[in-house]
Every structure is written in C-alpha cells, then in structure tokens.
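@channel anyone free to eyeball this complex?
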Amino acid sequence: MTLFDRIEIEAMDARDPLRGLRDAFVLAPDEVYLDGNSLGVPTHAAQAELLRAARDEWGGDLIRSWNKAGWFDLPVELGDRIGRLIGAAPGQVVVSDTTSVNIYKALHAAMALRPGRRTILAEGGSFPTDLYIAEGVVSTLPGARLRLEGVDGPAIEQMLDGDVAAVLVNHVNYKTGALRDMAALTARIHAAGALAIWDLCHSAGALPVELDAAGADFAVGCTYKYLNGGPGSPAFVYAAQRHLGQARQPLSGWWGHARPFAFETGYEGDPGIRRFQCGTQPILSMRALQGALAIWDGVDMAALRAKSLALTDLFIQQVEARCAGLGLRLESPRDGEQRGSQVAFGHDHAWQVMQALIAGGVIGDFRAPATLRFGFAPLYLRHMDVLRAAETLEQVLKSESWRDPRFAARSAVT
Amino acid sequence: MTLFDRIEIEAMDARDPLRGLRDAFVLAPDEVYLDGNSLGVPTHAAQAELLRAARDEWGGDLIRSWNKAGWFDLPVELGDRIGRLIGAAPGQVVVSDTTSVNIYKALHAAMALRPGRRTILAEGGSFPTDLYIAEGVVSTLPGARLRLEGVDGPAIEQMLDGDVAAVLVNHVNYKTGALRDMAALTARIHAAGALAIWDLCHSAGALPVELDAAGADFAVGCTYKYLNGGPGSPAFVYAAQRHLGQARQPLSGWWGHARPFAFETGYEGDPGIRRFQCGTQPILSMRALQGALAIWDGVDMAALRAKSLALTDLFIQQVEARCAGLGLRLESPRDGEQRGSQVAFGHDHAWQVMQALIAGGVIGDFRAPATLRFGFAPLYLRHMDVLRAAETLEQVLKSESWRDPRFAARSAVT
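replying in thread with the prediction:
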C-alpha cells in the first residue's frame, strides 16, 4: 500500500455524490461498521421520530393517535415508500409482520393461484427461514412438496416442471452476496407456468430492484438491513396488481378485512394490498422505520449501485493484495454484475478472525460454518472505511492476533 | 350527588393500596382516560427503556446488542414475566408477533393434537379477528369447520360434541366485559375430549388469571391494553407444559428452530415454548414493553381485582343514578363476579355521545353499532376519576351537547 493509493481513495470519497448523506446517521467515529446488512445504522431522523411517537403520540394523544398521527395507515404509507425503492407502483406493498410470516402469506397465495400444481421450489443455499416456512406451508397442503436447488436438483432453471406452482428465490444470497437476474429468472418461471416469489432482504435499499418491470408475482423483504428501520422493524410484502383481489392468504386477521371497524362476524378480505395485513402492528417500531425512510427521498438508485460496486470492488482488491497466502478464500462473485452489496471471505478460523476484527473496530459478522461476511451500505460508508477494514484484516491475519483465547468463546447470537 | 358522596369517594382513593402506582404513569392532569382497555398509558419507565434502546443499544452497540442487551432472549424473558400475571409457570409463555398470528399458531397446534376431529368452536360475539383467523385455519385443513356460539348453537357448553377439536374462547368479552369461568369451562371442554384456547386480551393485567390451575391448553393475548406495552406491542402465546415438544404449528420460522444460528437446511422445532416463535421481533416495541412490565413487580392481583370491581361498581351506580331516563342501557353484567374491568352502555347515539365525552376530557371508546365502552385500569385510575366521568356523561346527556354537528363525523379508526 503506497501513499499514492491512499490519496486516490480519499479522492474517491471527495467525488462521491452520496457523501453528504453520512451526516444523517448516528455513527461511532472510531468504528467501521460493515454489518449494515444485518442491522442498519439509525439516522438522527429515525431516532427523533421514535421519540416523538413515544412522547407526543403514545404519551400525549394516546388512543387518538390511531387517527391523528395516522398510525392505522402506516403499513400502506410505508409500503408505498418502499415500493419506490423496489420498482413497485403504489398499492402493491404493505409493511407488516416479519419476513417469515410474509413468506408464509405469499407462498400460500401463490399455491392457491396454481391449483393442481403441488411443488414449491426453493434454494438449498437460502437463508434458512425461507425453507423452514416453506416446510410449514407444505405441512398444511396435502400432497404438496418442497424441492431444493443444490439438493434435489442442480439449478432452479432445470427444476421447473409442470408440477411447480411457486418458486421462492433470493434476489441476493445472504451469505455469498450472489445476485440473481430477476427479470430473466422470472420469465423462465412464468414460461413453466409457475409464480415467482422474490426475497429482497439483501437487495432492498442495497441496489436497484425492479419488481414490476421484471414481472414478479410476490416479494418479501426486511426493513432493518439496508433500509435502517431498527432492530426487527416490520417487514414488507409485495403482491403484483394483477393478483390483488384474487390472491388469498390464510392469516386472515382483522387488519386485512375490507371493513375492519365494522366488527363483522365473517371475513371478507380487502380487495387491495391490505389483505396481506393480519393483526395490529408494532407502531413504535413502525414509526422509527418511517423516520428512517425519509433519507431515501431523492437518492439516485443508479448512483447507489455505482458506489456499492466501487466499495465492494475496492475491498476485494485491497484484501486480496494485502492478505495473499493468509488463508482467505473469496466466496462472493468477483464480477460486480453478479454481486449484491456485500463480500464474503472464507477462513478456517472465521469466528476468531471476526472477533479480532471487531476488537479492532471493524464490525462485520460471522456466518456458520466458516465465513467472514462484510456488508457495504452505500448511504453511510466511505471508501476510506474500506481501506481501514482491509488494513485491519491484514493486521489481524499477519499478527495472528485472532489466536488470543478471548476470541474463542462463542456468543449465543452470531 | 351530595357533598357527602364526594367525601366518601375521596376516602376510597385515600385508602386505595395501589394509589402510589399512579405516579409511575404519564397522565394528562386534565383528562380521565378510560380507554386503557384499547391502548394502555405509558409509564415513565417504559419511555426511558425505549429511549435507552434507541440511543445506546441500536445507536451505540448496534449489532452487538443482540447479545449484550439480551435482545434475542426478550421473547422468553418477557413471556415469563407475563406468565407470573396469568398463572403460568416459567417456560410456557413467549412474546411474539400479534394476537391474530398467535391464534393461528394455537389453533393449528390444537387441531394437530386432536386428529380425526374437525370442528373449531368459537363465539359469535368474539372480537372478530379470532373468527377471521379461525376461518383462515379452517381454509388450510380439509374437512374442518368453524361453528359459532350464538349463531350455530346456543352456548359453547351445549355445542361440545365428539367432533370438536378446539374451542377458542374469550376470557373477557371485548365489548360487554362479560367474564367466563375459565376453570369450569375448560373442564367441560376437556370432558368432551377437546382442547381449550383462551384469548386473554381483556383479562391479562386486568384481573387474576390462572392458566395452569384451570388446566388451559393454549392461550393468547395482547400486551398493549392493561399491560401498557405501547401501541401494537408484541402479543404473547401460552402452551401448557404437557403440550410442549409435541405441539406443532406451521409458522415454522427460524426463531422457533432448535438451533437458529446453525443455519441448517431443515426445520427442527425447539422442544420448548420457543417453537411458538417465528421470525425476528420488533425490538424497539419489545423494549418499551419490557419497561412497562417492571411496574408489576409486587402488585397484589387480589388487590388489583378488588379495586377494579370497586371502580366499575361505582361507575355503574353513579351513571345509573345520574342518567336515569336518558337512554342508556347497561350492556355489561351487573354482577361483578361475572365482569372484567370494563363497563359498556348502549345508547342510540353512542358515536356522538362518545365524541362529546372526549371533548369534555373523558376518553372512552365507541364500538359498533351503538356501544359506549369504558375501561378501568386499576393501576392508574382513581375513584374520583370515576366520579368525574359519570358527572361528564350526565352533563353531555342532560344538555344534549352531543347533538353538536361537530360530533357527527366518523373517523377512520373507531
């Protein structure tokens, strides 16, 4: 690493069109936070909105806030705001429940739209909750079965047959960061007569997503990663306009009713996206998310993607140059076109290496069994942060500081 | 109303053993809040915990708070704390998702434990989401059917036959406040070979509940009414110890897995109550609830019940004495033994009357089609508040101030 490189990297920050957004975030000055793909950083606006909700709305107007502060409509209001980031026209996205619960709704809706077909396809390499929920759906549908890419067949494209009703697929792989071509795969799925459900947990807010243009049928995603909504903030679900009204899902709670306050005995689903709601939502968490989403007004998604690729390319280049022969294996696609906004390296002692990195002020995470995972949130990271992360990783590996016994103990949550 | 009565009522407040708890709550000095059965009032502790969670945990330790602040174990920790209020020994209650979603889990679990039986019984007068969710469960179980008390038969007790697998019943009716005898009805349900699922939304925190002693099988409830957890704070679900390990529910997300961080491809449910979890929970809302539950340490539930009955008896007595002939009809049981902590009066112009009451600083709510509903939260209400509410209602009805056109417009959320 020459001084010249450092000057070049500082120049990248100086000409970064998104550089002004960093000040909106609550960041520790002495840390490099590369875990925004697990839990995003709060903005000052998100914290301020949460405080207002707790003090003036809950603590002041109390029950009247359902109307006065617009609490009841937050799921559709925030849904439309997220819709703008994922290429969904208004009225197709609602914020509600968790990603897991929303996968359950979407899979059931898709299966009901393809009567006679009994197979769900998913990915063996998926974040596991997608598979666990698909198992749960299968358990409620006689004759249904779940088949997994990489386990029961080589690739989704080659597993599409006349029995496939729904394909549940991740836009960006949670571990490797591998990015799917949404339009191309959706077209293949439709050509086979099946419906496509996209999991956007690792792409919403990380790169441009075009659900409507790709012809996606359903989608789900979380809001606490690149959308910075706060720990466990409510998830979203998308249903394409053409399926609204006819799509049915069995979590038919009162918030999905056509007339929730008429207190009728029988269920009649709302004709729009509200049918994908179920019960009363956690408003404090929802209000923090509302504050968090404000930063996206005016963000150019093409500029976001360009910066994301610049950050991840720089990280791969710096790490490989500095750490050659030190046991790291790139687990993410090298080609930026096939990569989300994260980079994974395998290492035989990944757990300890990550603990040593964290002790050195570089926060990434570990994924079992042996992966170091680094997320690059373009709204608040600088190119110089990437340099510091690579330098710290080099230092940890060269000094073997990760062998310190204090880095061996596993915590409950990884 | 004589001066002597007022002096007597002031004396009731002076000797109230719970009177010291009121100061823990954030209350407007000029209002009487009788809507704690819809949205409970925040405690200063709940707001403080929320602020700490937003600033120091999310904004400071970020991802590390999952371990350091104990976020991941909040559902079971808070579950056990609620368990102490509802007569459940540790390890049987978990805080997760919404009441609606938890009803779905409990009904599925109960149906799977009674193979061959296909009927769910519920109440025609139930809060509707219970019925809507039961419809949703029925839609996923071939041959299953839902029968309603008051619609398909006269009373739950007389509808129990050999096909009934599960009975979903409210401990306290959301509208009338009618209280069921949990032990007696559970025994009848068990004698018929069925399982009992109790909805505690209007009893948890309002009166003593004894799930274990009554032999209940499952229970659900919300935390934003008498438990004051905040708007839409996460709900709870109870499964009796004898059902743990064998009870299955199809919302099999990763938080219910025996080893959630092993990222295994196949689902294996946790052997304990964690199996009733699904996905990542809204931690900010959960932390406010944690702060809210602190006030219950040391609260004598018998004293709580005694005060609740004193408040509701006083309200009925005062309203009936002051408002005779003014069109009110008591819709709650007159006998305190059969009543929860709320009082309902019917009135032909209930909507307008409630708006006029609210304008007069007495906050209750309206329930379609023609009910004035008043909740009495014993932790923060005084007997003098009851007097003022009755006086205000008398004034609104005698002056007919409710006829003011500004009280006619309906809001979206009632």
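from a first look: Chain B has a mean pLDDT of 97.
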